[in-house]
Amino acid sequence: MHILPQLRELERKHRDTLAVIGVHSAKFTTEKETENVREAVMRYGIEHPVINDRDFAVWQSYAVRAWPTLMFIDPTGRVIGRHEGEFPFDAMDRTVAEMIAEFAHQGVLDRRLLPYQLEAEKAEQRPLAFPGKIEADASTGRLFIADSNHHRVLVSDFEGHVTEVIGSGEAGSADGPFDAAVFDNPQGMAVDGDILYVADAGSHTIRKADLAARTVATIAGTGEQSLYRHTGGEPFANPLNSPYDLALHDDVLYIAMAGFHQLWFLDLAANLIQPFAGDGGEDIVDGPRDKARLAQPYGVAVSGDNVFFADSETSSVRAAKMGDGGRVVTLVGTGLFDFGDRDGVGKEAQLQHVQGIAVSGDTIYIADSYNHRIKSIDLNTLRVTTVAGHGTKGSSDGPAPGASFNEPAGLAMADSRIFVADTNNHAIRVLDLDHSTVATLELSGI
């Protein structure tokens, strides 16, 4: 995911000479299903062919060792190089340009464009496109929906009547009035009165939408993806890396910085941004906040003096204590390659690529995304219980145990209701905890 923007730029710049084939070698069980790969291709705007290498046949034949790996193949079919890990665009562009110049000199390039139809061109038009996160303001009865692949944020009431559209719908990054502002894959949000903060994952920025003035402004990030970890400082001087969710507490924004494998915080009063937890290594290691290891945190929520977060690549739910000497502890989850679908107590339970999180009293609710379920964790006993979803992807409403979801990624609490961003169903679902039912929110007014 993190190299897709650079790869897309290379494809478009060298479209008559560079052919790209994506090879999807899945880690998680759910990622092995071809239909799920198709959804991911559309969700992330991939414009090249992708093979589902579900049994690692291609991976093994090229002796691949890491995600991501780039293999360079010349016009005669020979492997001439490889690169493991992320890369800066300029350096890779120079390398590709040198290869193109060499093979052009040899007269072996075929500049005819490869014909194929994008999956996105086959998809039906919908009010929502892969909504990633959702935020609820119970005091005003407002919902904020990250309409992620439409690159905008919708504001509605709890009955689905849309009252505001924030963003032009174009992909990019530009501030200004609501109808002219531009987002790129907006994700998590936090609301404070008439101010809505947005984690704009694709532009690697934190944005502020003034709901009264109807304007959007960038408050952190440079607009470029950081390819190195840094210590933070002035918000506009520090590039960020895939901020995916936000939680606000005492004028401090806590940020799930997925690309850095860290939690960060933005002190709004002091105008300071810096890491909060995680040393940047990808793993599941508890301990002092600055020495702990996280793995692609996708969801964050604050309750009391704890910052709870969904650590997706370890299929875990963890907590980071605020204050001096604060530590990271794991509530559920054991390893980078340990995942499943099992209720139970603490680390006896198993999740699969959990992405969304919300806290109410002594209960954590989680979007167990790749298991297509909503689950809860009792903070007193650490017991994990399935609340809704029968575990097979679908879109059926009704009694919660028999309802179905499709990779839900965002949760928001409002009294006894949980609003769910049901990402691959392109829908918002409403889980009524009092009556244990699930219904689809019908949006109107877009």
Describe the model.
The protein is mainly beta and 446 residues long. Helix content is 10%, strand content 37%. The chain is built from 4 helices and 32 strands. The protein has helices at 4-13, 34-43, 57-61, 89-106; strands spanning 22-24, 50-52, 69-73, 79-84, 134-137, 142-147, 152-157, 162-166, 176-177, 186-192, 195-200, 205-210, 215-220, 243-249, 252-257, 262-267, 272-277, 287-288, 297-303, 306-311, 316-321, 327-332, 344-345, 356-360, 363-368, 373-378, 383-388, 398-399, 408-414, 417-422, 427-432, 437-440. A 5-stranded antiparallel beta sheet has the order 9-13-12-11-10, with no helix packed on it. A 5-stranded antiparallel beta sheet has the order 18-22-21-20-19, with no helix packed on it. Strands 23-27-26-25-24 form a 5-stranded antiparallel beta sheet, with no helix packed on it. α1 (4-13) runs parallel beside α4 (89-106). The two termini are 30 Å apart.
How would you summarize the topology of this molecule?
Elements (H helix, E strand, L loop, with lengths): L3 H10 L8 E3 L9 H10 L6 E3 L4 H5 L7 E5 L5 E6 L4 H18 L27 E4 L4 E6 L4 E6 L4 E5 L9 E2 L8 E7 L2 E6 L4 E6 L4 E6 L22 E7 L2 E6 L4 E6 L4 E6 L9 E2 L8 E7 L2 E6 L4 E6 L5 E6 L11 E2 L10 E5 L2 E6 L4 E6 L4 E6 L9 E2 L8 E7 L2 E6 L4 E6 L4 E4 L6
Parallel strand pairs: 1-2
Antiparallel strand pairs: 3-4, 5-6, 6-7, 7-8, 9-13, 10-11, 11-12, 12-13, 14-15, 15-16, 16-17, 18-22, 19-20, 20-21, 21-22, 23-27, 24-25, 25-26, 26-27, 28-32, 29-30, 30-31, 31-32
Helix pairs in contact: 1-4
